[in-house]
Amino acid sequence: MMMYMSQSNLDLAKLFGMAMNAVSNNRGALNSMDEDAHPDHGDHVANNLGIIKSALESRQSQSPSDALRLAAQKLSEQGQGSTSQQYVKGLQEAANRFEGQQSLSNNDVGLLLHNMLGSASQSQAASQQGGGALQGMLGMLSGQSQRAAPGGNDLLSKLAPAAMEFMRSKASGADTGSAAMQAAMRAMIGGNPLQAASPGQASGGLTAQSIMKSILGQ
């Protein structure tokens, strides 16, 4: 059974550095997923994550809110592609939410990712329904079942362990929001994000998966 820290001095710069590396290593595949509409998607996302990482590194002695606000500012000035402004909005929302906190929990990072990546990775219908954080995070996996090879791991095989984790967390006294986020974090560890239906889903999945793996020491 996975253990989750309720509070931790998480290194956001390191986490986003892991995400940058994951996207950079797969930028060719991301660029080729939709060459007509988004031929530079992988390049743009890798660049944007690098800007976030550098900004966070320069503010490691400050509060998470201050560091995230600087990252949003730098990305607004230097970002590339449609993901940049989406990430800016998510960073700003997270900075406001974490005001006054001197450290972040795993759940906080999950909510940050949901704010940054949710609109790129959820289906249009799910976005209109305004689902919660769990729906948004698991939405990053939703495209896999559309493109997965026969006999490969499908979405249900990822959701079943997540559902079990959710029930265990609830049984141990976790509130619904925390339990849902823990389940989403567990679900993000499995699967191949490059099997997603769109470049946005794929890059979002790579970003979230690499950060979750780093947090959970996998």
How would you briefly describe this protein structure?
This protein has helices at 12-25, 27-33, 41-57, 64-78, 82-97, 106-121, 124-129, 133-138, 144-147, 155-171, 176-189, 199-215. It is mainly α.
Specify the overall morphology: globular
The helix fraction, in percent, is: 55-70%
CATH topology heading? Serine Threonine Protein Phosphatase 5, Tetratricopeptide repeat
Count the beta strands.
0
Which CATH class? Mainly Alpha
Distance between the termini: 14 Å
Rg over alpha carbons: 16 Å
Number of domains: 1
Instruction: Give a quick account of the main beta sheet: strands, pairing sense, barrel closure.
Output: none
Low-confidence segments: 1-8, 119-138, 140-156
Query: What is the correct CATH architecture?
Result: Alpha Horseshoe
User: What is the averaged pLDDT score?
Assistant: 75
| Annotation field: number of helices | 12
SS-based class: mainly alpha
In what range is the share of β-strand residues?
under 5%
Helix and strand sequence: HHHHHHHHHHHH
Could you explain how this protein is built, in words?
By secondary structure, this protein is mainly α. It has one domain: Serine Threonine Protein Phosphatase 5, Tetratricopeptide repeat. The chain is 68% helix and 0% strand. Helix 4 packs antiparallel against helix 5, helix 5 packs antiparallel against helix 6 and helix 6 runs antiparallel to helix 12.
